[in-house]
Amino acid sequence: MRTEKVYDCDVLVVGGGIVGLSTAFAITRAAPGTRVTVLEKEPGPARHQTGRNSGVIHSGIYYRPGSLKARYAVRGATEMVKFCTEYGIAHAVTGKLIVATERTELPRLHALVQRGRENGIPVRELGAAQIAEYEPEVRGLAAIHVGTTGVCDFVGVARQLAHASGAEIRYGAQVDRVDRRPERGVAVRTRAGDVVRARVLVNCAGLYCDEVARLTGDEPDVRIVPFRGEYYELARPELVRGLVYPVPDPAFPFLGVHLTRGIDSGVHVGPNAVPALAREGYGWGVVRPREVAGTLAWPGSWRIARAHWRYGAGELRRSVSKRAFTAAVRRLLPAVTEDDLVPAAAGVRAQAVLRDGTLVDDFLIHEGPRAIHVLNAPSPAATASLPIGREVARRALAALGGA
After folding, report:
1. Is the separation of the CB atoms in 167 and 115 below 8 Å?
2. Which pLDDT does position 250 carry in this prediction?
3. Full-model pTM
């Protein structure tokens, strides 16, 4: 135990997305000299949730006051802008509109105003005529303007975190087995047959975080149920100046089909949210029977289906029908036509689901002997990645101190 050469590193991070790389960065900043290795199964960083989202720096307005999502998103948005400025990473603070298009949405819009104020976020309320000040082509009964929302290159952020962390990053290193011995440490074998020995393991495996937790010997009591978000690109980007969102349904963690002008000046439209037939199911043609069986074997999956089948049916309809997807967009942007929507790359959300069918609505971090597991970190995790990384690093260093 006292011989350093027994270990290849002090902390081994599984997952080279923005949360895993932020954790590596935070560990080496907080405790210089700590040896960190990151294992990423892909040939480069940020290939899944980090690199396949809208690129939005979220303000934190949607999240329950006092929750990790609220605290880390508000703090993380400010820190992300500062980080991008410091390292010359493309970003812009654009602000966004959240628009009510039906009278039934007005109470929810007002509740968002109150939530924003509780979370310390400046919000401006707009009447129907004032919407055109920000978005001339958008129509609605009322809206709120959130000035702290922005966009950035999260893949660029991930690359910079990897570089600045000083960690050893091993790409093409997929975890195959984990041997944890609380009295000694953790040994991880990759598919290539390499073995990495560490004192503490940090699991930031995203779509596979529950599987890595079980490989470690910890039962996470949640399962990742993958939801695919499908996007289009707007052929007439001049129709949208910035970011335009509908009023979300608080019963779901999804924000609805929205319009996002990115750092490349293109406008992404979406996503919807449909069950994926694989954890990396970026299209209907990607089916992995073992993963589908795992999802169906989890009782929470059936309970979600029973409780929310109407919502799910609408999402599926928008997935298979471009006309239905266009109709959803036209609620906000009446000028858009089917021909304006050009298919773009999809993403998959790693959504943790409890046994009773509850969708975990906050970030979830679980600790086991010599292991820290990040078990729920979908949106706004990219925005909140710097604070999340510090919290996971704090726990990892505490575990390292007790090892």
Report:
1. no
2. 73
3. 0.95
